Amino acid sequence: MKIQEVLDVLKSADWDTNWSRQIYDVEEGWEDKCIRKDREKSAECQIPIKHRRDWIILWEIYGKKMYGTTNAAPNQRFHLENYLQFKLQDGLKLEDDFEKKCYRYIRNAALILYIREIVFKETAESLKPIAEKVVEQYNNDKNFPANSAGKLSKS
User: Fold this and answer.
1) Does the structure show a pLDDT above 60 at 100?
2) DSSP output for 36-91
3) How confident is the model at residue 61, as a pLDDT?
4) Do 21 and 72 touch, CB atoms closer than 8 A?
């Protein structure tokens, strides 16, 4: 599948899927809430970083305007669209293979499951065991490495 085809799919895609939203809520959303609450005390939330994720800040600056909303949370459609636009600005072409040039490098569990359901057309039911395993890992261990969640999401 070409990058252009992915962008075409996204034009009419949902902002999130059930699974991508659940994972965002226990992964990046939870992390962002802790950091925004108190950067200096983010260690209390067991967050090793004190800086918010770029794509979430970009959502606050541009995403709400793009989607004509003031209260929606960051979503994986915006995340993927911006990731692809960044890659295109950095030298990739619309006709490049999405799986080989982009997808294989993505490690974010919420984004991976969004791509699998929206772009690759896997069913929500088929992704259920994977999504539940990722959510369970985050709920049981807030120090669970994000790259491990990404690997689980691609299994």
Assistant:
1) yes
2) HH-GGGGGGGT-S--S--HHHHHIIIIIHHHTT-SSPPP-HHHHHHHHHHHHHHTT
3) 74
4) no
